[in-house]
Amino acid sequence: MTSQTQKGNSVRAVTSNQTGMHEKLEQTVRKHLSHAYRKPYSDHTEQAFASASAWLEQQDKPLLLDSYCGTGTSSRWLADTHPDCAVIGIDKSEARLNKLEKQPDNCLLVRADTDDFWRLALAAGWQARQHSLFYPNPWPKSEHLKRRCHGSPLFPTLIALGGQLELRTNWRIYAEEFCAALKIAGISSELKKLDAGQPVTAFERKYSEAGQNLWQVCAQLSSHPLSPL
């Protein structure tokens, strides 16, 4: 998902009517932590999950999830840098996923609704060794808090999937809110400025070349840490 408005080769920074963390962040996160999300699954995501499950069983390797993977460039990078793991990249756009012509044998790109796929994965007992969220749509308008990962009803599911969680964003408020939401859930995290010396996605390259600050949040959700990337 893109978090920028683009025109030609220029990339505009995120703009928002928020000047700091959302005033209803804590209230929203606590509500979602105490209420189960029971939206019916979409048929196409159930089918996609069934295929992904069969593939993962054949791989017989630790799982790395790459949600909102876009064209899958980051998924391929994860698969190349962690050949001992099975990488599943998830995006809702078939057009974006079709842009990547070839991926390693340990990488699978899946067209699915993330909300449904995460819940299906948790219900099936999946536990990720690592979960990457690289530049999700920040939904910068204040009224769209619940569309952000940490403001969504799916935030508890994200946490329950475990692993070494990594968020990258070019909007510092998003990163700060993400850290605050994790803290509300009793999880410590680290927020730091990211040096994108070797960009892992096209958007990361564009943001970096445009001189924008990039932010990284890391949190350990399970007992299976990876070496620092």
Strand residues, percent = 15-25%
Q: In terms of structural class, how would the helical and strand content be classed?
A: alpha/beta
User: Helical proportion?
Assistant: 25-40%
User: Helix tally?
Assistant: 8
Strand order of the largest sheet: 5-4-3-6-7-9-8
Provide the residue-averaged pLDDT: 91
Rg computed from alpha carbons, rounded to a whole number of angstroms: 17 Å
- Termini separation: 22 Å
Write down the overall geometry: globular
Number of strands: 9
User: What is the makeup of the main sheet?
Assistant: 7 strands, mixed
3D architecture notes:
The strands form two sheets. The chain has a seven-stranded mixed beta sheet, sandwiched between helices. It is an alpha/beta fold and 229 residues long. Mean pLDDT is 91; it is low at 1-9 and 224-229. Strand 4, helix 4 and strand 5 (107-111) form a beta-alpha-beta unit. It contains eight helices and nine strands.
Keyword list:
single chain, 229 residues, alpha/beta, two-stranded antiparallel sheet, 9 strands, globular, disordered C terminus
What's the SSE blueprint?
Elements: E1 6-7, E2 10-11, H1 25-34, H2 43-59, E3 63-67, H3 73-81, E4 86-91, H4 94-97, E5 107-111, H5 114-123, E6 130-134, H6 155-160, E7 164-169, H7 172-184, E8 190-193, H8 202-209, E9 215-220
Parallel strand pairs: 3-4, 3-6, 4-5, 6-7
Antiparallel strand pairs: 1-2, 7-9, 8-9
Helix pairs in contact: 1-7, 2-5
